[in-house]
Amino acid sequence: MQTWLSNQKQLIDSWGKALNSSSEQGSNPDTNFATQGIQDWWQKAQIHSPEINQLFDKVAAMGNSYMQFAEQVYKTGNTNENEIDILQWLEHSEQLNKNWILQLSALLEQQDTSTGEITQTNWQSWRELSRQVFEICNRLQNQFGDFKIPGAEHTQDGFFNLFDMAESVFFRQAEDEIQQHLVHFNHYKKANVAYSLILAKNSLQATQILKDNFSQPEDDSDLNISSLRALYDHWVTVNEKVYAESALSPEYRQAYGELLNSYLTFKKGLDDSLARHYQPFNLTSRTELDSLLESHQLLQRENKLLREELHKLSSRIDALENKNNDGGK
Amino acid sequence: MGFKFNLRSEDVLTEIKEFNQKLSQGLDNLKNVGDIPSGVSSKELVYQEDKLKLFRYQSEKRQNSIPLLVVYALVNRPYMADLQKNRSTIQGLLNSGQDVYLIDWGYPDRNDKYLTMDDYINGYINRCVDVICQRHGIEQINLLGICQGGAFSLCYTALHPIKVKNLVTMVTPVDFKTQDNMLSHWIQNVDVDLLVDTMGNIPGNLINNTFLNLKPYQLMGQKYLGLVDIMGNPEELDTFMHMEKWIFDSPDLVGETFRQFLKDCFQENKLVKGQLKIGQGIVKLENITMPVLNVYAKQDHLVPPASSKVLKKYVGSSDYKELSFNGGHIGIYVSGKAQKQIAPKIGKWLSERCD
User: Fold this and answer.
1) Position B169 pLDDT exceeds 60
2) Helix A2-24 vs helix A123-143: angle between axes, to the nearest 10 degrees?
3) For A317-329, how does the pLDDT look when each residue is reduced to its tens digit (9 = 90+)?
4) Which ipTM was obtained for this model?
5) In whole angstroms, how far apart are CA A60 and each of A39, A79, A148, B229?
6) Residues of A in contact with B31 (CB under 8 A)
7) Per residue in A238-296, pLDDT tens?
8) Which of A84, A95, B103, B278 could staple B7 via S-S, CB 3.0–4.6 A?
9) Residue range B261-275: average pLDDT?
């Protein structure tokens, strides 16, 4: 188990370096010359209504992402002739994508072969490594067009909150129950890596298409990129197209299903365990509450049907009375 | 296809500088955006049941004696059809002489988790129809369903055909398994029972994230760069903010209804197979024999046109018409050209069939 943890740590460390490599390129003293502007802008933003604040957050995040894009193009594509070499930038991006794919594949393989048992002694280091795997997946998913897995924020936050609770509670439980949760957790982690791998492959494919587009420029072509914004827009178009094709593939469908199902299996297992722990304290569990709500819904439905029947009967009686009254006249 | 590329390093720096200037200049406009209303047209509350509210829009132009009930989806909020004064499908319908009612489903909570499609269709919608009929002393109304509300309207009309004079469906999924339906493709491998059993009601922001992930680069990235471009224009910024508020105003989805809708419609495509069971009844689309107007958007990424257009094959109506819009799922309600092309034509179609 310790060897496995150590291998995992090495892999994750090399990962971190790979992810940071793009921002460490070049020796320009103004390393974050573009993103700094966004941070300054953000400093000026005052707190307003929640809607405006949320929009501030999004614009700041997008602006930051766009400025990172600008920095990468500038740093890796800049030549001595004061011109941007687009192919130089794309080759750099291509290499990064290939590294990501290699690293994710290795991570996925390790997930397949890891069978070590988690105990209270190695729990903390295992937990920390797992957290890092998720951080890496999140960072990657954000890099690919600010992509987010549906419900990712809930998933990530909820997941670690549950795990924090799990640490204090579960080691007092039967060992097999703990191991069952960990099996579920490992499935979820693996699914997350597999999903990120698809996105990394998409990113590589998009980069290669962009390279092809710019490799053989045609003098009479109407397709002319002469601004950073036009380059970004073209980058979005190509990435979106690759993503759309991938998202309709059987592989994506399977990875998406695995990701959601594995998370839900893990969460449900923990929820059920927590519910069992409520019982000795005489606390109402979610299952009991749901049972009450279901009964309430049944009663409400019956009441509404009865009310409708009463209304119909009442209308009939009114009609009969009117008829009798008319007949009496 | 070769691209010409000529970008100088100093141009990149200039663009970055200009971008930051635009951000600074737009900040004040952004700060000055006031409260954004949830719908703009005047309306009165005519019926309320649990969290549902039935509204009637005020108008001095009502000519059609058959009122029109608008049934919106459970996803997002119905004020998308009444976003701004100059971007309002509701206003367009009122201007065409329709007497418009709308169901607002509200924000469901845990208390509503066990509401079923039967409760929504045979319960809530049916009672709203009865309320309207009673108010007007009539036996039939016109029905207009939007998106999932369109699917619900199809179910309702097939189960209660006697109560619907004319049916309008807008961007409505009918065949849930067309090849280009990304949403449906993703859902096929999802364990829906596990999802509902674990989550209860489905969080609105999870659904919303799923929609945004249909076009992640555009909807979560590029769109906000476009915002920086219009930050200097208060009017355009205001429109953007109305849309933005609506997009992220996502009620949670009722668990049991979500379970049946996903399993029966998305996974098993029972609506077109004639196998969808709502309460004690089976939805048979051939029971829909009244006039039908099916409105779809040609660039709809949520409900592909093929998914809607297939309705023609299944309904029993001899008066079936289609109206297409050259735009997307949302643009059909809020774009400038939609205001001229969609609501007036729906109104005209309805008026012609209510004499």
Assistant:
1) yes
2) 30
3) 998 998 888 775 5
4) 0.91
5) 8, 30, 16, 14
6) 45-46, 48, 52
7) 999 999 999 999 999 999 999 999 989 988 988 888 788 778 888 888 888 999 999 99
8) A84
9) 98
CB–CB of B114 and A253 under 8 A? no
Q: Distance (Å, rounded) from C-alpha B52 to C-alpha A300?
A: 15
In the predicted structure, residue A4 carries a pLDDT above the cut 80: no
B114 touches chain A (CB under 8 A): yes
| Contact: A293, B110; criterion CB under 8 Å | yes
> A306-314, long-range: CB within 8 Å, 24+ apart, which pairs?
A308/B127
| pLDDT score for A111 | 65
Measured torsion, CA atoms of residues B198, B199, B201, B202, in degrees rounded to the nearest 10: -130
Q: Which of B128, B133, B147, B155 is catalytic?
A: B147
3-state secondary structure of B39: coil
Distance between B229 CA and the closest CA of chain A, angstroms = 11
Q: Does A43 touch chain B (CB under 8 A)?
A: no
- If you search the block for the tokens 């072509």, which residue do you land on? A221
DSSP conformation letters of B289-317? -S-EEEEEETT-SSS-HHHHHTHHHH---
**pLDDT above 60: residue A2:** no
Place of tokens 């000519």: B63
Which of B113, B179, B217 is opposite residue A145, by nearest beta carbon? B217
